[in-house]
Design goal:
Shape: globular
CATH topology of one domain: Methane Monooxygenase Hydroxylase, Chain G, domain 1
Number of strands: 18
Mean pLDDT: 89
Low-confidence stretches: none
Structural class: alpha/beta
CATH superfamily of one domain: Fumarate reductase/succinate dehydrogenase flavoprotein-like, C-terminal domain
Number of helices: 17
CATH architecture of one domain: Up-down Bundle
Largest sheet: 7 strands, mixed
CATH class of one domain: Mainly Alpha
Length: 550
């Protein structure tokens, strides 16, 4: 079965949905998503969207805060674009129906602006502590009302379609340039494999937190976009910079439930088990220090004390105000018999956000023609070595808008594009149930290896040990994949394993400590030799990894 559209969006988070809404003004849009339409990292984002709205704030201050958090690796042009578009993109979300928390205050244009770690001003627009869900739902409502958009749920992208999949006689004249013509997609409900052909393809697949044992990400965040783009020949950048959120609920049944950074911005204080404050020993901003510093500080305190968690104390604040500002967090903690108005919250770090990804320019373009990327799957240069809190949802709407504007400049070309003759997917082979059972443990092994050896604090020894084992697992999975009919679980396992492999390679290559990448073998930051991006790309058809630095 073949589906043709002007635009194919892979992923249904804030980045994918917002670009789909805009592109639908100029052609047909197909959105494919692995699970239900609302299942995405966006839906779990609690904090909010950073934007310069208050009268005592400025673009210059927000830019400075972002660059400082990024530890010398931010692309300044990308940061300028991000910050200067912020207010317009927030107002656009309001027009689409997003209801942000409000406050009667003329200095803040009616918004209840919060503050989070690394920000020197109150600039977080939020919908209490469920901002992501509110944004996602408003965008979905607008999407469903649009006749040019169709969402395909329970559809998993397998591979991007490039020149490798075109019958030779139908290759376009510019065959030396790699193009993307859509994707092969698994319909998990029927088990059939479809071709989704498109004139422009936008990767908006989200992150890869499931590579780690403990993560705030949903089950679908298995690095699919990164792995697919790499296999297609895209450049991937800065995967060594995985952000660990400092505060997730420490409870065996909580599944790394996120305690928003906004809780610290509201006045929460990090303490050890004996009630002692400790963040002042690590940074002048105390509990409001940037995330990389807070996560490493917690990691150090836990190792030094031999304890399992630290505590986020907000019991000194007004109880009614806390419940009103964080109703979801309050209810969730209370379900585990933790009353946050009376008891400090036990917290530990967990993998949260990938600051690297598919390398793009300021317009969201990858090095593959007609392939764009936005949201967490992309590396726009905004986050550098460490993301400033609440810049992620902002990045998603700003750079999806950049993609829209870039494609709009080419709108006269849309009607003239003709698809080449694409080869049908060959799924010949047999499925061996016993062998599948034998390799299911690979996912847990990869997650444990990444958590133990490629976590908050790293070393050459740990990274090399992880590399040897993950390489073996990747080879086993690849052999099995080539002789087996595809399932959703196998696709995710393959992508997760390969993304882990790329992360390890990037981490081994960087011989310094910077931002989210801290190694005991090179504890200092080396601007002279390492103030540049780590870029990996496919060298040949066997997926050999070539690493350079730009």
């Amino acid at each position: 079965m073949t589906t043709e559209s002007d635009f194919l969006v892979i992923g249904s988070g804030i980045a994918g949905l917002s670009v789909a809404l805009k592109l639908a003004q100029h052609g047909s849009v197909a959105i494919i998503t692995k699970k239900e339409e609302a299942e995405s990292n966006t839906n779990y984002a609690q904090g909010g969207i950073a934007a310069v709205i208050a009268k005592d704030d400025s673009f210059e201050i927000h830019i400075s805060d972002t660059l400082k958090a990024g530890a010398g690796l931010c692309n300044k042009d990308a940061v300028n674009t991000l910050v200067q578009q912020g207010p317009n993109r927030v107002n656009e979300l309001v027009k689409w129906g997003t209801e942000f928390s409000r406050k009667t205050d003329s200095t803040r244009n009616g918004f209840d602006l919060g503050r989070e770690g690394g920000h020197s001003k109150n600039r977080i627009v939020h919908a209490r502590d469920l901002t992501g869900r509110e944004v996602e739902n408003s965008l979905l409502d607008a999407i469903k009302a649009h006749p040019e958009i169709r969402i395909y749920e329970e559809h998993c992208a397998i591979e991007l379609i490039t020149e490798h999949h075109i019958r030779r006689k139908s290759l376009p004249s510019s065959a030396d340039t790699v193009h993307c013509w859509g994707a092969y997609v698994l319909d998990t409900a029927s088990g059939s494999i479809k071709m989704f052909l498109s004139k422009y393809t936008i990767l908006a697949t989200g992150g890869c937190g499931q590579v780690y044992l403990h993560t705030t990400n949903p089950k679908i965040a298995t690095g699919d976009g990164i792995a697919m783009a790499f296999r297609a020949g895209a450049r991937i950048a800065n995967l060594e910079f995985m952000q660990f959120h400092p505060t997730t609920l420490f409870h065996q049944k909580a599944d790394s439930f996120l305690i928003s950074e906004a809780v610290r911005g509201f006045g929460g204080v990090l303490k050890t088990k004996d009630g002692a404050k400790f963040m002042e020993n690590y940074h002048s901003m105390g509990s409001l220090a940037p995330r990389d510093i807070v996560a490493r500080a917690i990691d150090a305190e836990l190792k030094k004390r031999g304890e399992n968690c630290v505590y986020l104390d907000i019991t000194h604040l007004d109880a009614d105000a806390l419940i009103d500002r964080f109703p979801h967090i309050y209810a969730k903690c209370l379900s585990y018999n933790i009353d946050i108005t009376k008891q400090p919250i036990p917290v530990v770090p967990a993998a949260h956000y990938m600051c690297g990804g598919v390398e793009t320019d300021i317009n969201g373009r990858t090095n593959i023609a007609n392939l764009y990327a936005c949201g967490e799957v992309a590396c726009t240069g905004v986050h550098g070595a460490n993301r400033l809190a609440s810049n992620s949802l902002l990045e998603a709407v700003v750079f999806s808008h950049q993609i829209y504007r870039n494609i709009l400049d080419q709108k006269d070309r849309i009607s003239t594009v003709h698809f080449p003759e694409i080869q049908a997917w060959d799924d010949s082979g047999t499925f061996n149930q016993e062998e599948w059972i034998l390799i299911q443990h690979d996912k847990e092994e990869i997650q444990s290896l990444m958590w133990d050896y490629v976590g908050i604090v790293r070393s050459n020894l740990r990274l090399q040990r992880a590399q040897r084992r993950v390489n073996l697992i990747c080879n086993e999975i690849e052999k099995f994949y080539k002789k087996t009919k595809i399932t959703e679980g196998l696709l995710e396992l393959r992508n997760l394993a390969f993304t882990a492999k790329l992360i390890i390679n990037c981490a081994l290559h960087r011989k310094e400590s910077r931002g989210l990448h801290y190694t005991t073998d090179y504890p200092e930051t080396d601007d002279e030799n390492w103030q540049k991006d780590t870029v990996v790309y496919r060298r040949n058809k066997n997926h050999k990894i070539l690493i350079i630095q730009d």
